[in-house]
């Protein structure tokens, strides 16, 4: 745990001991999420890992089936919303 401040440009410094333990290097990106009014969570953001996961999940997708399913769902929602 460490104490840090927000500077005039909105930047926050991650304390050195935390950076060292976690192997955080300059230029790494993080996702920042507000949990509630006084809690923020930072998670390492690895674009390569995210893209690899997306590609892995997309390999089994049949585009024709996806298009048909999208049209069916759009028609279902339109019927509900507009009493068609």
Describe the structure.
- The radius of gyration is 22 Å and the shape is elongated.
- The chain is built from three helices and two strands, in the order H-E-E-H-H.
- It is α+β, with helices and mostly antiparallel strands.
- It has two domains: 1-45, Pemi-like Protein 1, Chain: D; 48-82.
- The protein has a two-stranded antiparallel ribbon.
- The longest helix is centred in the C-terminal third of the chain and has 20 residues, at 63-82.
Which secondary structure elements does this structure contain, and how are they paired or packed?
Layout (H helix, E strand, L loop, with lengths): L15 H7 L6 E8 L2 E7 L1 H12 L4 H20 L2
Antiparallel strand pairs: 1-2
- Total helical elements: 3
SSE pattern, N- to C-terminal: HEEHH
End-to-end separation in angstroms reads 58 Å
Tell me the helix content: 40-55%
CATH architecture of the largest domain: Ribbon
CATH topology of the largest domain, anyone? Pemi-like Protein 1, Chain: D
Average pLDDT: 87
């Amino acid at each position: 745990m460490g104490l840090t401040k927000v500077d005039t440009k909105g930047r926050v410094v991650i304390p050195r001991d935390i950076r060292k333990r976690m192997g955080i290097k300059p230029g790494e990106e993080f996702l920042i999420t507000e949990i509630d009014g006084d809690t923020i969570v930072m998670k390492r953001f690895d674009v390569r890992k995210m893209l690899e996961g997306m590609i892995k999940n997309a390999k089994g997708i049949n585009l024709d089936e996806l298009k048909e399913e999208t049209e069916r769902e759009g028609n279902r929602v339109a019927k509900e919303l507009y009493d068609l």
